[in-house]
Design goal:
Shape: extended
Largest sheet: 2 strands, parallel
Oligomer: single chain
Number of helices: 9
Strand content: under 5%
Number of domains: 1
Strand order of the largest sheet: 1-2
Number of strands: 2
Distance between the termini: 46 Å
């Protein structure tokens, strides 16, 4: 099956872009023109019932991790604020000690980086849930697009990033969304024990394949 989402999306779609309203055309505009259709895949995913419901369920399922991350984020900010203010004040002093300023700046950066790593660890189960839901939706995208294309006699489906202009009649978003909701009414929010995203699985399989080739005994060269 063709993977329609880029690897970055499989690990996690950009929440800011997906939170925006999708360009779903009115039903009256859902007609194929000359066998060509245009589908905004991220918009369809973000508006699917499975994805939207999972986004809501995740807030409850992983409430403890989310609250812990928010508390730690606030604590880190409170820790950094006086240090940043101190650094700014010291840098404005005449004949400021540049070496001392550099040391203070490094300290601030180290605390900030350590804080980001800590937050990522706390929210790791949340990110894994996000990736798990996205993969479930992605697994049904191709079938949804093909079904919608057959219904509208479309033989060529494009994405908006390769289209300069298209009339609303070419918009297949709603047709694909309807099929996607039919194929995947809901998604599991919590991944199974030991589950990893597809991109990681593919990397592991490639590494295992390379290791297997490296461990194969060398074939003796046969003489003529």
């Amino acid at each position: 099956m063709t993977h329609l989402l880029k690897p970055a999306m499989a690990a996690g779609l950009a929440l800011a872009s997906l939170a925006a309203p999708a360009a779903i055309a009115p039903a009256a505009a859902q007609s194929a023109v000359q066998g060509i259709g245009v589908v905004n895949i991220p918009a369809v995913v973000a508006n699917s019932n499975a994805y939207r419901t999972a986004q809501q369920q995740r807030q409850t399922t992983y409430q403890a991790q989310i609250e812990q991350a928010n508390q730690r984020r606030q604590a880190i900010s409170q820790q950094l604020q006086p240090l940043v203010q101190q650094l700014q004040t010291a840098s404005q002093q005449p004949n400021a000690d540049q070496q001392a300023l550099q040391q203070q700046a490094v300290q601030v950066q180290q605390i900030e980086q350590a804080g980001q790593q800590e937050l990522q660890q706390i929210l790791a189960p949340v990110a894994l849930s996000q990736a798990y839901v996205e993969e479930q939706v992605q697994d049904q995208l191709q079938a949804a697009i093909e079904a919608a294309a057959r219904q509208q006699n479309v033989s060529l489906v494009l994405t908006p990033d390769v289209v300069v202009y298209a009339d609303a009649a070419y918009n297949m978003n709603q047709a694909v969304l309807t099929e996607l909701n039919r194929l995947l009414p809901s998604a599991q929010v919590t991944p199974p024990q030991g589950w990893v995203p597809r991109a990681v699985r593919e990397q592991q399989e490639a590494a295992q394949a390379q290791q297997g080739v490296a461990q194969q005994p060398a074939q003796p060269v046969q003489g003529r």
